């Protein structure tokens, strides 16, 4: 009788403890237990997504909801597995930045089947109706600002223009290029620039705007795949093939900071390149140092704190049964996805300190020579 009571008491204590662990576990990246919001990011191999992870952690430290962040390491299979892991942990909202926007359809459809609300984060998920919301920067303006910088710094006429693009698996790569093309095209048509490295782009030089198929052909020639090594190899190949009149003072449309730094290094080491103006985006710390050192011309600063705040705000509203506020929509090939969009800022040497240090995005001590 006494022994029976003791073991029931013990069982009760164990059950209580298990319930406690389940309630606490999973909070802000812990494992095990229930999770309300699952976050899936594409890779740890680029500074950009580590920045997002950190900003999510900062913003989540005082939410009452439990969350978990998983990385897909550039693999759609891993991404699907991550989503399944989070579904099994009982998430109600999924915030996902896909590695491959089309392939991610299957993963979010699995989530949708479980009644989970899906928020595409930074990159749109295409050709599925299983996306509920989209939080994004103004990506067309990112491309337009990069291009405008090249136009504003053009030297004379007939200046060689080297074009590079992101990965064809990323819907943003198309939007960035579309935005850039609309600004560059009139300056190609009037002879300010001559395209140095894409026969597809040259063939389209009189088209004011491009279809997705046309952009796809150009991306096919000048993609970096968002990979610094691929960017470096392409730049080397282009410079080896370039005739003397495609060297001298050149302009380079580089899609983001990681690829910009490696393309810049290649151009800097070619003696026939007298000067170059090169774009970027993300305000990677490494690129801010390049800008301070005069090795990269500009970057487009996308304040990840805002995107994270918008994504979490949206998730919390959904958890509370409310309808999040949106500012527009993006068509993903299947539906118009309601979207919340954030502005971007051009940063060059003259305003680095004001935009990135004074705004407390980075510390002054992160850099030398500022
Ligand atoms: C993001 C960029 C990033 C790129 C490569 C894009 O979808 O918008 O910020 O540099 O992917 O990861």
| Total count of domains | 2
Distance between the termini: 77 Å
Quickly give the structural class.
alpha/beta
Largest sheet: 7 strands, mixed
Bound molecules: beta-D-glucopyranose
Gyration radius over CA: 24 Å
Helical residue percent band: 40-55%
Strand content bin: 15-25%
Count helical runs: 13
Morphology call: globular
Work out the oligomeric state of the chains in this entry: single chain
In CATH, the topology of the largest domain is named Rossmann fold
SSE order:
HEHEHEHEEHEHEHHHEHEHEHEEEH
Strand tally, please? 13
Unreliable stretches, pLDDT < 50, 5 or more residues?
1-5, 8-32
What does this structure look like?
Strands 2-1-3-4-5-12-11 form a seven-stranded mixed sheet, with helices on both faces. Strands 7-6-8-9 form a four-stranded parallel sheet, sandwiched between helices. With 370 residues, the protein is of the alpha/beta class. It contains 13 helices and 13 strands. Helix 3 packs parallel to helix 4 (104-113) and helix 5 packs parallel to helix 6. It starts with a helix and ends in a 13-residue tail after the last helix. It has two domains: 19-131 and 304-342, Rossmann fold, CATH 3.40.50; 139-302 and 347-366, Rossmann fold (3-Layer(aba) Sandwich). It is globular. The chain binds beta-D-glucopyranose (BGC). Beta-D-glucopyranose binds at residues 46, 48, 122-123, 166, 170, 172, 226, 256, 281-282.
């Amino acid at each position: 009788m006494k022994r029976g009571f003791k073991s029931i008491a013990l069982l009760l204590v164990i059950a209580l403890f298990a319930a406690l662990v389940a309630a606490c576990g999973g909070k802000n990246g812990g494992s095990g237990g229930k999770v309300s919001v699952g976050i899936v990011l594409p890779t740890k191999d680029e500074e950009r997504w580590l920045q997002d992870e950190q900003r999510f952690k900062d913003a989540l430290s005082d939410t009452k909801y439990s969350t978990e962040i998983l990385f897909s390491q550039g693999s759609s299979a891993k991404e699907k597995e991550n989503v399944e892991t989070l579904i099994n942990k009982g998430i109600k909202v999924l915030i996902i930045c896909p590695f491959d926007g089309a392939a991610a359809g299957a993963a979010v459809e699995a989530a949708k089947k479980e009644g989970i609300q899906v928020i595409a984060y930074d990159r749109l998920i295409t050709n599925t109706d299983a996306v509920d919301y989209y939080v994004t920067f103004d990506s067309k303006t990112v491309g337009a600002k990069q291009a405008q910088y090249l136009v504003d710094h053009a030297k004379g006429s007939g200046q060689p223009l080297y074009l590079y693009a992101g990965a064809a698996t990323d819907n943003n790569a198309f939007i960035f290029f579309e935005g850039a093309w609309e600004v560059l095209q009139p300056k190609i048509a009037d002879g300010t620039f001559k395209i140095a490295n894409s026969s597809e782009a040259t063939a389209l030089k009189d088209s004011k705007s491009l279809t997705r198929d046309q952009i796809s052909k150009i991306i096919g020639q000048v993609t970096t795949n968002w990979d610094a090594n691929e960017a470096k190899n392409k730049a080397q190949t282009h410079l080896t093939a370039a005739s003397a009149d495609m060297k001298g003072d050149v302009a380079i449309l580089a899609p983001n900071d990681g690829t910009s730094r490696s393309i810049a290094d290649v151009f800097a080491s070619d003696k026939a390149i007298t000067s170059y103006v090169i774009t970027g985006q993300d305000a990677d710390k490494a690129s801010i140092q390049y800008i301070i050192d005069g090795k990269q011309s500009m970057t487009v600063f996308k304040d990840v704190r805002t995107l994270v705040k918008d994504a979490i705000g949206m998730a919390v509203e959904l958890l509370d049964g409310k309808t999040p506020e949106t500012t527009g929509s993006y068509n993903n090939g299947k539906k118009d996805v309601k979207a919340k969009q954030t502005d971007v800022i051009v940063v060059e040497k003259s305003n680095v300190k004001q935009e990135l240090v004074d705004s407390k995005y980075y510390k002054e001590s992160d850099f030398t020579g500022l």
